[in-house]
Design a protein that fits this description.
two-stranded antiparallel ribbon; disordered N terminus; 10-stranded mixed sheet; alpha/beta; 14 strands; globular
């Protein structure tokens, strides 16, 4: 790691432990956990499951199996509610998210979401304002989920699945923190209107306030402290005033509260290039809604498959330190393979591991699931999306079966 430079200039150039504490899989550290720790009393948590569309119900079914295992073997208790969202909710209720489901989402400890959308509701088949994806935006906004955590981790067993050379991605472990409730996706004014000359104009507005920038930057700084102690802040301050404000506010927060963390600034287009050229230079990246949407998808493909990557969306902590939260795989609904029992459930299972860590403060159980995934992959089991020569191709259900067996082994160790 490079020595930390002095306070950065606000000008634009081209170039206490908490639930955010643990953010990467560390097999050596995991091995030191006492899997048979005594549970003095049953811990109970409330969880809303929203399987959604396409492969969502299939991968969520494997999460239910792991939840049942955790309850049986680890002394936890989950009060589970399951409801419709996205296209499934449109078909049943005429809207992608009903008021009742939204209220339930606000009342539980965490929400688990599968996937939404599909060709049945695309291409103007439903009104834009009630498209399946509108449910995601509504949940994020109404729950105040401003910080989206997207890890991009290359498992040793999947190094060759990446389109980049093995030496470029081996050992890669990046956390991208995306601001989720501001920026161009929510800014006003917005819309499409007619012009006097007969043309039409589409308008979206990029806005950020000081508080919106500082709160997501604080989440990123806290994560960086517990990882490699290095943060890249990414924007386009050379052409966007919102980007200039972003850089200025991140610098101020760094000087005030996080001067121990190495801070570097990078323009978004350069970051996109560097993710392909030298991705291991990054540890934690914090950026706005639009750039985070793009860069996190780019980073995900460094790992070889969208089917491997989880995400967490977190709100502000309340007086007791608890945050509203939603967890979901970053892959889509994949309607072309829905119902065939071939989808990769690992991203959804790893999303549940993130829920155990960040919402339920159950580090040991989160690490057990992550270790079970590592062992499954090392054993050569693959779904179609991550299939490699010499490996054994399996179904969604068989992959779930194997995860449960690996968890049993860890519990008995």
């Amino acid at each position: 790691m490079k020595p930390r430079a002095g306070p950065a200039s606000p000008s634009c150039s081209s170039d206490r432990p908490n639930r955010l504490q643990r953010s990467r899989v560390d097999a050596a550290a995991v091995a030191t956990f006492d899997w048979m720790e005594t549970v003095v009393m049953t811990a109970s948590y409330s969880l809303l499951l929203l399987p959604g569309d396409g492969i969502g119900p299939e991968v969520m079914r494997q999460v239910r199996r792991v939840i049942e295992w955790v309850e049986r073997k680890r002394g936890l208790s989950f009060q589970i509610t399951e409801a419709l969202v996205g296209g499934a909710s449109i078909d049943a209720h005429g809207v992608p998210l009903t008021p009742q489901v939204l209220e339930k989402a606000k009342s539980v400890d965490a929400v688990m979401l599968g996937a939404v959308g599909g060709p049945k509701w695309d291409g103007g088949k439903v009104a834009f304002e009630i498209r399946p994806e509108a449910a995601l935006l509504a949940l994020r906004k109404e729950l105040g989920l401003f910080a989206n955590l997207r890890p991009a981790t290359v498992f040793d067993a999947l190094v060759d699945a990446s389109t980049l050379k093995a030496e470029v991605v081996k050992g890669l472990d990046i956390m991208i923190v995306r601001e989720l409730t501001g920026g161009v996706y929510f800014g006003e004014p917005r819309g499409i209107s007619d012009l006097p000359n007969g043309e039409r104009i589409g308008v979206n507005t990029q806005t950020y306030t000081t508080s919106e920038i500082r709160r997501v930057a604080a989440v990123a700084f806290e994560l960086a402290r517990k990882r490699g102690n290095k943060l890249h802040s990414v924007e386009k301050c050379n052409v966007m005033e919102s980007g200039l404000l972003w850089r200025q506010e991140v610098i101020k927060l760094h000087q005030e509260s996080y001067s121990d963390v190495q801070l570097e600034h990078m323009l978004a287009d350069n970051c996109a290039m560097q993710l392909l050229k030298n991705p291991k230079q990054f540890d934690v990246i914090v950026t706005d809604n639009l750039f985070g949407d793009i860069l996190s998808d780019e980073a995900s493909m460094l790992t070889g498959s969208l089917g491997m990557l989880p995400s967490a969306s977190l709100g502000a902590p309340d007086a007791n330190g608890k945050r509203k939260a939603m967890y979901e795989p970053i892959h889509g609904s994949a309607p072309d393979i829905a119902g065939r029992d071939v989808a990769n459930p690992l991203a959804t299972l790893l999303s549940f591991a993130m829920a155990l860590r960040y919402s339920f403060d159950r580090e040991a159980e989160a690490a057990m699931i992550e270790t079970a995934v590592q062992r499954l992959l090392a054993g050569g089991l693959r779904t179609a999306d991550i299939m490699q020569p010499g490996m054994a191709r399996c179904s969604t259900t068989v992959m779930g079966d194997t995860i449960l067996r690996e968890l049993d082994k860890l519990q008995a160790a």
